[in-house]
Automatic annotation (TrEMBL), chain A:
Keyword Phosphoprotein: no
Entry's localization field: Cell membrane
Family: Belongs to the cytochrome ubiquinol oxidase subunit 1 family.
Main location: membrane
Membrane topology: Multi-pass membrane protein
Gene Ontology BP annotations: aerobic electron transport chain
Protein name stated in the entry: Cytochrome ubiquinol oxidase subunit I
Domain of life, source organism: Bacteria
Automatic annotation (TrEMBL), chain B:
UniProt similarity note: Belongs to the cytochrome ubiquinol oxidase subunit 2 family.
Membrane topology: Multi-pass membrane protein
Single GO MF descriptor: metal ion binding
Keyword Transmembrane helix: yes
Superkingdom of origin: Bacteria
Localization: Cell membrane
Primary residence: membrane
TM ranges: 6-22, 83-103, 115-136, 156-177, 198-216, 222-245, 252-274, 302-325
The protein's name in its UniProt record: Cytochrome d ubiquinol oxidase subunit II
Stored InterPro entries: Cyt-d_oxidase_su2
Length: 473, 338
């Protein structure tokens, strides 16, 4: 296997694994902050139990997210050294700012938050978790500013054989950046809501064995989770729609591949609901079409045509020279359908879930199959997020920086295939272990339940233990 | 070389110094979990000394890496690709140790020992391999005209680089012991001091070997004789100060001295590199220079404004966090099934 393939595989594997935990953390930390706000405002101890309970699950996600994030920063230099040389003048800046502005903030205040329960005033403790929310959302901001440059380079000139920044303001006000950031953040918020509602639903399946107070707590978080995922999923669909419309102009090849369209569409354009492509021959094998639908999706009206991959290919050859511009079409086509399908499903389940848990007639808790559906939804954001990134990154093929620098040019020329095979294998084994541990620990926290810590505290009676005793300095 | 380029070379040095000063004792504490503690309660007590701060400390490394990428992309690219497998092992260490903090107190008691081990082993791997990397880097590596390093096993691992790796492990371990002595009460505190008092004798021997190898293996004494000598002397003085402080029981002095000695090591390496950032063993004309490895003046200017604006805030709230956690730790703070 070539080093390009191995390095691409590594990037995909490490990024997908890392991104399981990024939106998980961003979403759940927001919910934890909301729960603690409820506690501080209402002084209801139940909210404190919920804050700590969901906080424990959030902390597990954070731990794995942080450590796998270090790989991301290192691998640009390790696997993609020529890319780093070409684009470091611009790309490095947001990465450095991310560490300085966001990472310090989220990790310092998360540390403070974890260890200062009942040690500082309630309001100060609440401030800590909100600063973690700000920090985590700011970190997404800067890394996506960097990614947006790769998708749609702005504010640069080519000088001394590399891309040099001439306008920092242009780099951080890139239109692409607003779409990406909006999409990722609303996606993360949706994910947080779905995970909290879904895991609570799983617990409610065995509600006959639980204390009445515990059941009430889970019912609270089902509702809270669903409200958040409803708001989130509506926003994510809105942003996604805008993003698609921009894509038609900015990256027509990516758009056409997502729709599996080789030929230009007629006017009005029909939309392929499901289909399959023969990627070697550049032709569609079969497709089930809905008339007018693609015109509606693209332009919000009943007319208008879109370019297919063949015309996009011709235009790209004319502009950038001869090479293969076709991305992995089936992968893109199906990733898009899975992502959008799960997105719509999350919206539907959130809306119906809220309806069926309304005060007057909360029938959702009585039907096991409804709880099962809500529970299984927990897994959907992981799949949808992964598909979303596959579209974004695979659709940029053959570029690392769109129109400027190709994947083949980017790879480290001095890293051997053996090194890459070793690191790929070890990463794979390591990630499998981490994922398995993570899942088992989340299940363990769930089994303990929200009231566990309170009971333990009462048992231990705490009085004998004072970790903060004499001043050291 | 412009003033901005020099400023960023300095700043990268400062960031790595901050990393070794802060994260240095975290590694020491991590290694101490399996080497200093006698029972599970003591392990919890030791881990609790860094529980709230280790994650923030690690960000120094990420900031140093990110700042190097932004300000010296050619340095970043050549260094990180050239030390591919070494940095891969460092990442492996960082990962297994980072998750251990969270996992070890959430897993069932039976599995806890497993994550104590990953914590200690990870905390050993990282400083050792970073030591090997930085020491072989200042000795010079086979870097070609394109800035690509094509090194063999002997370039990475030789007497000098292994002594360097061991020295960094020893320095961080001692820094961690001094920190534990400063931050705990009871048996652990006394034992940490006893360990440190003994290990400083080993460190003296190590420093002599290191200084001799530095003389023969690098061009530091030829290029910057005065600065190199002054920093080596400073290193020895700080070691003596820390050792004496450990005997006298002035734990804060011992801790600061061991921390500053790590800073002096970084300063020693960076001044020796100057005005280069990477040394080619093939030919001096392939050396990467501050002058040619940096980003454009515009990027450096933007990043300077960002850094000068943000760093004071970071330092302020980091200091605040340490102030909040200023108390000694008497007994384990972990609440769970015991």
């Amino acid at each position: 296997m070539s080093i390009v393939t191995l390095a691409r595989f590594q990037f995909a594997m490490t990024t997908i694994f890392h991104f399981f935990f990024v939106p998980f953390s961003i979403g759940t930390v927001l919910i934890v902050a909301i729960l603690e706000t409820c506690y501080v405002v209402t002084k209801n101890e139940q909210y404190k139990q919920l804050t700590k309970f969901w906080g424990n699950i959030m902390l597990l996600s954070f731990a794995v997210g942080v450590v796998t994030g270090i790989i991301q920063e290192f691998q640009f230099g390790m696997n993609w050294s020529d890319y780093s040389r070409f684009v470091g003048d611009i790309f490095g800046a947001p990465l450095a700012i991310e560490a300085l502005l966001a990472f310090f903030m989220e990790s310092t205040f998360l540390g403070l938050w974890m260890f200062t329960w009942d040690r500082v005033s309630k309001k100060l403790h609440l401030l800590f978790i909100w600063l973690v929310v700000v920090g985590s959302m700011a970190s997404a901001l800067w890394i996506l500013a960097a990614n947006s440059f790769m998708q749609h380079p702005v504010g640069y000139v080519i000088r001394h054989g590399r891309a040099e920044m001439v306008n920092f303001f242009a780099v951080i006000t890139n239109a692409q950046f607003f779409y990406e950031y909006g999409h990722v953040i609303t996606g993360a918020i949706t994910m947080g809501g779905i995970i909290v509602a879904g895991l609570s639903a799983f617990q409610l399946l065995k509600k006959d064995k639980l204390e009445k107070t515990t059941v009430a707590l889970y019912k609270k978080t089902v509702r809270l989770g669903l409200v958040i995922s409803l708001v989130g999923s509506i926003s994510v669909m809105g942003v996604g729609d805008l993003q698609m419309k921009a894509l038609i102009k900015e990256q027509p090849m990516k758009f056409a591949a997502m729709e599996g369209a080789y030929k230009d569409s007629g006017d009005p354009a029909a939309w392929t609901l499901i289909g399959w492509a023969n990627e070697a021959k550049h032709e569609e094998v079969f497709g089930i079409k809905i008339p007018y639908m693609l015109s509606i999706l693209s332009y919000d009206k009943l007319s208008g045509s879109v370019k297919g991959m063949d015309s996009a290919n011709k235009a790209l050859i004319k502009k950038y020279g001869k090479r293969n511009y076709y991305p992995m079409v089936n992968m893109m086509f199906w990733s898009f359908r899975v992502m959008a399908g799960f997105g719509a499903l999350m919206f539907l389940v959130s809306a119906l879930g809220l309806f069926f848990t309304r005060k007057k007639k909360a029938i959702l808790y009585e039907h096991k199959w409804m709880l099962w559906i809500l529970g299984m939804m927990t897994f959907t954001p992981f799949i949808a997020n992964t598909c979303g990134w596959l579209i974004t990154e695979l659709g940029r093929y053959p570029w690392t920086v769109y129109g400027l620098f190709t994947i083949k040019q980017s790879v480290s020329p001095n890293v051997s295939a053996t090194s890459l095979i070793i690191s790929n294998t070890v990463y794979f084994l390591l990630f499998t272990t981490l994922a398995a541990t993570m899942v088992s620990l989340v299940i363990r926290e769930l089994k303990k339940g929200p009231e566990y810590e309170e009971q333990q505290l009462q048992l231990a009676n705490q009085a004998s233990v004072d970790p903060f005793d004499k001043g050291a300095f | 070389m412009s003033g901005l380029q020099f400023f960023w070379f300095l700043l990268i040095g400062v960031l790595f110094s901050g990393y070794f000063f802060f994260e240095g004792f975290d590694y020491g504490v991590g290694m101490a979990v399996q080497t200093l503690a006698h029972n599970e309660d003591e392990k919890d007590q030791i881990v609790a000394t860094i529980g709230p701060v280790w994650d923030g400390n690690e960000v120094w490394l990420l900031t140093a890496g990110g700042a190097m990428f932004a300000s010296f992309p050619y340095w970043y690219a050549s260094l990180f690709s050239g030390y591919y497998l070494i940095l891969f092992v460092v990442l492996f260490g960082l990962i297994i140790r980072g998750v251990s903090f969270e996992f070890r107190h959430k897993v069932p008691l039976k599995q806890k020992q497993r994550w104590n081990w990953t914590l200690s082993i990870g905390s050993f791997i990282v400083p050792f391999f970073l030591g090997v990397m930085f020491i072989s880097m200042v000795k010079g590596m086979p870097i070609d005209a394109q800035g690509n390093m094509t090194a063999t096993f002997g370039d990475y691992f030789n007497l000098f680089s292994i002594v360097g790796g061991v020295a960094v492990v020893l320095l961080t371990y001692l820094h961690g012991l001094n920190y534990i002595a400063l931050k705990t009460e009871g048996a652990v505190r006394q034992r940490a001091r006893n360990y440190a008092q003994f290990l400083y004798w080993v460190l003296y021997a190590g420093l002599v070997v290191f200084a001799v190898l530095l003389f023969f293996e690098t061009d530091f004494f030829k290029l910057h004789a005065v600065a190199t000598l002054a920093l080596v002397v400073a290193l020895v003085v700080l070691t003596v100060v820390a050792h004496v402080a450990s005997f006298k029981g002035t734990e804060l002095v011992a801790f600061l001295a061991s921390g500053i000695s790590l800073v002096v090591v970084v300063a020693l390496l960076f001044q020796g590199l100057f005005p280069r950032v990477l040394i080619s063993s093939i030919s001096p004309k392939y050396d990467l220079l501050i002058k040619t490895a940096s980003s454009s003046p515009y990027t450096l200017k933007v990043m300077s404004i960002v850094a000068i604006t943000l760093v004071p805030f970071v330092l302020a709230y980091t200091a605040w966090a340490y102030y909040i956690f200023r108390k000694r730790i008497k007994q384990p703070v972990v609440v769970g099934e015991k």
